[in-house]
Amino acid sequence: MNRNVYQFGAALASGIVFGFGLSLSGMLNPARVQDFLDIFGAWDPTLAFVLGGAVVVAFIGVQVMKLMLHPAFDDSFHVPTNRRIDAPLVIGSALFGLGWGIGGFCPGPAFASLALGLPQSVLFVIAMLVGMTLHDRLWSRRT
Fold first, then answer.
1. DSSP at 2
2. What is the pLDDT of residues 82-105, one digit of tens each?
3. What's this model's pTM, rounded to 2 decimal places?
């Protein structure tokens, strides 16, 4: 079979597992995320365990990647090489955090929650896509 079919299948399977995990952990509910961020109110530590589990899985994945010569369906690994902490990184992180705190979504759960048909997730995804498009068009002019 064509390598692109395998890549698509692997990406689809990964996305399904990720979406199922988000649903199972309750992270599709923006109120749960906002309760986690409300450390002086009715704090819900659930997200800390979800994030901790993600760190463990990512750590194992990186260790396995270091042992491999190349990925199963590609010629090389695509890992970031820039290690600088610069203004775009800090500004982007701040915008991500603001959006996460206000909306209760980050990109993965926002897309996964579209299946629930919640109006706030539709609005969030539209705003996110508009922001990403504006950033891409403005940033591509700078470079």
1. -
2. 889 999 889 989 988 888 888 888
3. 0.73
